[in-house]
Specification:
The protein is mostly helical and 137 residues long. It contains six helices and no strands. The longest helix has 26 residues, at 2-27. The mean pLDDT is 75.
Length: 137
């Protein structure tokens, strides 16, 4: 049984190979000429782009800009220990705005403490009497 199965598989393989070999030569004469000219055109395009130094992705311009930025940042003096401590404290309290917003918040807190507080239970009769007395001059 195994011999029959093996011979059947071998016959199938040989026949499929023979079919592929006979079909391939008929289609091949026109294909290489078209592929060759297409490949040459691609090679010429790549070669001309490479030789001209054209940067299609913008990476050379980006690298040049980064180099300029790095050179400028090296010229700037490093902050002192006191400046770094002040920046750290300001960013810890108000990370988006800094020291100016912290000063404004402190001022707002002082003003709100000066304003008299309203009674907590506004619906009670005692609270209404207190509000009437405060409203009359």
């Amino acid at each position: 049984m195994n011999r029959i199965l093996a011979s059947l598989v071998a016959a199938l393989f040989v026949s499929s190979t023979a079919i592929a070999q006979t079909a391939a030569p008929a289609a091949t004469p026109a294909a290489p000429a078209a592929k060759t000219s297409e490949m040459k055109a691609k090679q010429e395009m790549v070669q001309s782009t490479t030789q001209a130094g054209v940067d299609t992705s913008g990476s050379r311009a980006t690298a040049a800009q980064q180099q300029k930025t790095t050179a400028k940042s090296k010229k700037v003096a490093k902050p002192t220990k006191e400046q770094r401590a002040a920046d750290t404290k300001a960013s810890a309290v108000y990370p988006q705005q800094g020291a100016a917003t912290a000063a404004q918040a402190k001022s707002n807190t002082a003003i709100s403490k000066e304003v008299p507080k309203q009674p907590a239970n506004l619906g009670t009769p005692a609270a209404e009497k207190t509000m009437e007395k405060a409203a009359k001059p």
